[in-house]
């Protein structure tokens, strides 16, 4: 049987007195239960059989207990010593015994000094006192151990509970701080969000107000422009009426003078005829020799020459002095010139400058007595070397300006040579890139020599009347023959024969190609004195004044193919209106004429113009239009307002007569 050591936690001997558990208040049931468990523990811990194993209950279950469960008694020897020292009464003094009494109601102890009673008492002490005391000590020690263990566990639990409480409190504090921080952050974010919303709303309202103000300004500007344009139109109409009246008076005066001059020429011719006849008769009568006859033969030739000059003067008076209403349409059979009044005026001014300049150059040439053939060859070579690149245009332009300033040859002669060589170079068809490049060279030269542009335009007007634009109708009363009419409109005579219409139309297209390339040229840093504004004016004058025939159709087709892209980039919707006029009026009249005159060239031109309008070819950049190095201005943009005084296309009313200043 293994040993089980049971010890009391309190001192077992205090001043010679056996001490018990300071808290001995055990119930009887608890004590029995503890003893049973102790016995079971002892039996289970033994590795050998125990001969005195308890098989029955102690039989103390019916023993009644008093107010206290147990009273520790001292031994007989100690009692004797106590009786000798202090008497029997001292044994029962509770103050000297630290413990609780154990009452046994089943035993009767007599107060007498009978020996038998004392013997029973000792027998009881021997029988149950030692075992019970040991058991009590073991029980008490176990109880103390259990209590100590309970106290330890309670202390540990209290410590853990305190620690957990502190951790919980700390966690709660942290959570509360986090919640407060989140609330503060949410409050700040909410304030920032509200501020952003307020700023965005303020910016939006500012933008809306600014846009409203901008639209208001645009509308006010448009109203002012319309009012100014209407005022200018009224003033222009008054000026046109005044000019028309003055022109009518001047034309009436010119007609009177021409009639008087015609009568004087007729009288002079009659007088010359009379003189010729008289001289011939006198020579025949008097037998005048060969010298006299030769003189009489010269007279008729001179008379015939005067007569031709008179007839040409009459035709020019009809062409230049016929009555116009701004569009120069025919009012009678005698009015054969079709052109805008302003176009004829500009043509006369340019031709007058050209005539004066030509006289000046002839005088210089005669006075210098030099041969300028080498200069002509140099100019022709420079012009032929022009190609469609920016560097080439700059180089050739500088070279031409340098030749203009050559001290060996006067500048007017150089300019005259340049003008004639340029125009003659484009008598045959040239590549589109060369034509556009040549337009840039001409604009560059004109920026250095301003009068060169007017001379070039005058030369184009001389060789091609459709660059004015103008057209001359055939009239038997004005022309002796068809050949004279063809010469008047620009046909050439070769070997006594008039060239074919096909060749004439090819040359006409080449001249118009050069003119269209010139008017659409917009060069960086150089202002074109005859630019897109003049191109738009040419188109308006053309549609308002010229009839629809094969000549005008070819001129219009070439002009649109070359300059239409640039005109659309600048005028946009207004250019589309011009195309509607061409499609709805000019082509209709052209088709009606094509049905009467079966001419293949006319049908081909009609198809080309109709295809150009319907397929919107003006949206496509022509080949060679954009030079290498981007010399063409990229800043051209459509204009919403047209302050130019020459024309405002918004007055289009759908009729063939397109509203124009010209």
From TrEMBL:
Chaperone in keyword set: no
Main localization, broad class: nucleus
Region (Disordered): 280-306
Superkingdom classification of source: Eukaryota
Protein name per its UniProtKB record: mRNA export factor GLE1
InterPro entries: GLE1, GLE1-like_sf
Keywords, in A-Z order: Membrane, mRNA transport, Nuclear pore complex, Nucleus, Protein transport, Translocation, Transmembrane, Transmembrane helix, Transport
Subcellular location: Nucleus, Nuclear pore complex
UniProt xrefs under PANTHER family: GLE-1-RELATED, MRNA EXPORT FACTOR GLE1
Keyword tRNA-binding attached: no
Membrane-spanning residues: 550-568
């Amino acid at each position: 049987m293994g040993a089980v050591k049971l010890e009391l936690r309190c001192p077992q001997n205090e001043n010679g007195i056996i001490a018990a558990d300071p808290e001995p208040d055990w119930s009887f049931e608890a004590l029995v239960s503890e003893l049973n468990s102790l016995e079971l523990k002892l039996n289970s811990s033994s590795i050998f059989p125990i001969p005195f194993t308890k098989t029955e209950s102690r039989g103390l279950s019916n023993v009644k207990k008093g107010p206290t469960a147990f009273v520790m008694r001292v031994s007989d020897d100690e009692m004797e010593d106590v009786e000798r020292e202090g008497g029997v009464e001292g044994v029962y003094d509770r103050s000297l015994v630290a413990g609780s009494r154990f009452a046994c109601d089943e035993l009767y102890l007599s107060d007498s000094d009978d020996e038998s009673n004392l013997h029973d008492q000792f027998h009881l002490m021997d029988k149950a006192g030692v075992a019970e005391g040991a058991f009590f000590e073991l029980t008490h020690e176990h109880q103390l151990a259990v209590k100590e263990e309970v106290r330890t566990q309670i202390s540990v639990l209290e410590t853990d509970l305190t620690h957990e409480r502190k951790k919980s409190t700390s966690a709660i504090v942290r959570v509360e701080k986090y919640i407060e921080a989140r609330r503060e952050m949410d409050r700040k974010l909410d304030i920032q969000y509200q501020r952003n919303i307020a700023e965005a709303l303020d910016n939006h309202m500012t933008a809306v107000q600014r846009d409203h103000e901008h639209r208001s300004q645009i509308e006010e500007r448009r109203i002012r422009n319309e009012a100014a344009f209407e005022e200018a139109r009224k003033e222009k109409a008054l000026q046109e009426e005044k000019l028309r009246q003055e022109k009518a008076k001047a034309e009436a005066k010119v007609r009177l003078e021409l009639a008087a001059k015609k009568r004087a020429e007729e009288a002079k011719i009659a007088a010359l005829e009379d003189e010729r006849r008289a001289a011939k008769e006198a020579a025949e009568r008097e037998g005048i020799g060969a010298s006299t006859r030769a003189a009489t033969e010269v007279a008729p030739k001179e008379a015939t020459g005067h007569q031709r000059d008179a007839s040409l003067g009459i035709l020019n008076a009809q062409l230049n002095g016929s009555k116009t209403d701004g569009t120069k349409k025919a009012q009678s059979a005698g009015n054969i010139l079709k052109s805008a009044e302003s176009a004829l005026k500009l043509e006369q001014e340019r031709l007058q400058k050209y005539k004066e300049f030509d006289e000046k150059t002839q005088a210089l040439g005669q006075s210098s007595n030099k041969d300028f053939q080498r200069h002509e060859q140099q100019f022709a070579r420079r012009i032929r070397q022009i190609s469609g690149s920016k560097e080439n245009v700059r180089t050739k332009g500088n070279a031409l300006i340098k030749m203009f300033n050559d001290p060996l040859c006067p500048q007017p002669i150089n300019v005259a040579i340049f003008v004639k060589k340029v125009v003659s170079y484009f008598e045959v068809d040239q590549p589109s890139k060369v034509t556009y490049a040549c337009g840039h060279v001409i604009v560059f030269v004109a920026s250095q020599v301003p009068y060169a542009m007017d001379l070039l335009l005058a030369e184009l007007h001389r060789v091609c009347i459709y660059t004015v634009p103008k057209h001359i109708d055939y009239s038997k009363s004005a022309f002796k023959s068809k050949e004279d009419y063809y010469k008047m409109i620009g046909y050439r005579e070769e070997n006594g024969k008039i060239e074919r219409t096909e060749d004439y139309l090819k040359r006409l297209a080449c001249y118009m190609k050069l003119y269209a390339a010139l008017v659409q040229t917009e060069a960086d840093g150089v202002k074109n004195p005859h630019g897109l504004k003049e191109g738009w004016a040419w188109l308006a004058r053309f549609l308002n004044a010229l009839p629809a025939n094969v000549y005008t159709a070819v001129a219009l087709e070439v002009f649109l193919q070359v300059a239409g892209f640039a005109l659309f980039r600048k005028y946009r919707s207004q250019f589309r209106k011009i195309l509607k006029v061409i499609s709805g009026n000019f082509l209709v009249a052209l088709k009606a004429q094509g049905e009467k005159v079966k001419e293949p060239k006319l049908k081909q031109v009609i198809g080309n113009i109709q295809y150009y309008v319907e397929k919107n070819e003006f949206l496509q950049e022509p080949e060679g239009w954009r030079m290498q190095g981007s010399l063409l201005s990229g800043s051209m943009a459509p204009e919403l307002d047209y302050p130019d005084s020459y024309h405002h296309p918004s007055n289009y009313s759908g009729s063939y007569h397109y509203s124009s200043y010209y």
